[in-house]
């Protein structure tokens, strides 16, 4: 395998905050970066990269430009036109992780099949492509279910919960209406999991099969959006070990070269895999301060063929900063930082729309609970 050393050019597909944090680490190591943003100029990633290519992912000329200047292609999102991977293959440039791993994560139906093939537990589910398949799926799963569009969902978008109907069959017209509301597209119908906790594992894997994780993260969502992460998750040792094992199993099955996040539900002492992302993840942001080697540095090392670093995390917490914090004007940053242990990250987005991820706060402390208290208090001070 070819090892890419600085000042090689890391080609990043995606202009968001995950690409931004990767580009920042890459630059610290002396690499250069080129970003295909998928949209406009001055994107979070593009504005810190050496080269910003502001164009849609399907733009063949832009794709060729990226491949022409990059020594390796990696991704900061999975729901993307894979034409860039073909262009890279034609040019003999490595693509890490490979496009098949992205395809398995970009479509919830493909994702479920890949997870089952990897031998890890998923919630009972059915696929539904029209209202009558939806009715059959709801009847077969018999209980509260989550409807999710097969493609394009994030932050809980494209999802509808249907409560248990008891002995009453769900009316066909009601299901037709829900199907229409979700855009009349292919759906996954999934049994609701009565979870005790939500956790995730962010794992890095090299081409030679070496892996490194950051422990198990515990995640809390508000309105379908990840709100806080604490590490380590409050789990018995054997459940922690099982979660790390599951993440390794999926990473090996998908032959990941790069970083993979596996989101899981904890039900008693059982684990159920919710979904995967073949890239750094929101729940891994605290690794920047909590670990000697962050998820972004691991991604850089893995895609460049370098040995992985130590990802072990000290107890820490992350709180997301969403656009609504700007409702009354610029948040009071200096107030948040009156606690010297608080770290501020802003993604450089100019428009603070409600629900938009604008940045996050991190704190490292003796326990995850103490760290969480401090990031909550700091976030409260932003709008006090
Ligand atoms: P994100 O982009 O934030 O990861 P997403 O839109 O891709 O989210 P999911 O992770 O599938 O969607 O679901 C979002 C949240 O909805 C989950 O973290 C969980 O809180 C809840 N949820 C999803 N599926 C189920 C389920 N089968 N049972 C119970 N809760 C669920
Ligand atoms: Mg999720």
What does the model show?
The protein has 384 residues and is of the alpha+beta class. The protein is 31% helix and 26% strand. It has three domains: 9-95, Rossmann fold, CATH 3.40.50.20; 124-191, ATP-grasp fold, A domain (Dna Ligase, domain 1); 197-381, ATP-grasp fold, B domain (D-amino Acid Aminotransferase, Chain A, domain 1, 2-Layer Sandwich). The chain is built from twelve helices and 16 strands. The strands form three sheets. The chain has an eight-stranded antiparallel beta sheet. A four-stranded parallel beta sheet has the order 3-2-1-4, with helices on both faces. A four-stranded antiparallel beta sheet has the order 5-8-6-7, with helices on one face. A hairpin with a 2-residue loop joins strand 10 (211-222) and strand 11 (225-231). 48% of the residues are buried. The mean pLDDT is 96. The site of adenosine-5'-triphosphate has 18 residues, from strand 6 and strand 13.
CATH architecture of the largest domain: 2-Layer Sandwich
Helix content: 25-40%
Question: Kindly state the mean pLDDT as a whole number?
Answer: 96
The count of helical stretches stands at 12
* Overall number of domains: 3
- The rough form would be described as globular
Element-level helix/strand string: EHEEHEHHHEHEEHEEEEHEEHHEHEEH
């Amino acid at each position: 395998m070819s090892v890419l050393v600085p000042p090689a050019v890391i080609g990043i597909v995606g202009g968001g905050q995950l690409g931004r944090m990767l580009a920042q680490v890459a630059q610290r190591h002396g690499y250069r970066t080129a970003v295909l943003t998928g949209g406009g100029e001055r994107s979070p990633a593009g504005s810190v990269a050496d080269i910003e290519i502001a164009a849609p992912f399907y733009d063949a000329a832009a794709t060729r430009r990226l491949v022409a200047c990059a020594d390796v292609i990696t991704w900061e999102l999975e729901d993307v036109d894979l034409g860039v991977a073909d262009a890279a293959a034609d040019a003999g440039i490595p693509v890490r992780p490979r496009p098949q791993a992205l395809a398995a994560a970009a479509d919830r139906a493909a994702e479920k099949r890949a997870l089952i093939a990897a031998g890890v537990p998923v919630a009972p589910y059915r696929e539904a492509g029209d209202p009558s398949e939806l009715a059959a799926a709801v009847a077969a799963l018999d209980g509260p279910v989550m409807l999710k569009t097969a493609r394009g969902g994030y932050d809980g978008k494209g999802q509808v919960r249907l409560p248990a109907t008891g002995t009453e069959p769900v009316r066909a017209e009601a299901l037709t209406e829900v199907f229409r509301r979700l855009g009349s597209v292919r759906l996954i119908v999934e049994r609701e999991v009565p979870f005790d906790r939500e956790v995730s594992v962010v794992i890095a894997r090299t081409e030679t099969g070496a892996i490194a994780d950051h422990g198990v993260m515990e995640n809390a969502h508000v309105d379908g959006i990840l709100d806080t992460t604490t590490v380590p998750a409050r789990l018995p040792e054997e459940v922690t070990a099982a979660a790390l094992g599951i993440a390794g199993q999926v990473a090996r099955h998908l032959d990941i070269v790069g970083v993979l996040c596996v989101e899981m539900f904890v039900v008693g002492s059982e684990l159920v895999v919710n979904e995967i992302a073949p890239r750094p993840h929101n729940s891994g942001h605290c690794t920047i301060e909590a670990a000697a080697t962050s998820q972004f540095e691991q991604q850089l090392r893995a895609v460049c063929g370098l040995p992985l670093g130590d990802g072990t995390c000290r107890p820490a917490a992350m709180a997301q900063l969403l656009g609504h914090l700007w409702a009354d004007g610029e948040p009071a940053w200096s107030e948040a930082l009156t606690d010297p242990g608080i770290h501020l990250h802003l993604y450089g987005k100019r428009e603070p729309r409600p629900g938009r991820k604008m940045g996050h706060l991190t704190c490292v402390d003796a326990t995850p609970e103490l760290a969480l208290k401090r990031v909550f208090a700091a976030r409260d001070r932003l709008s006090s």
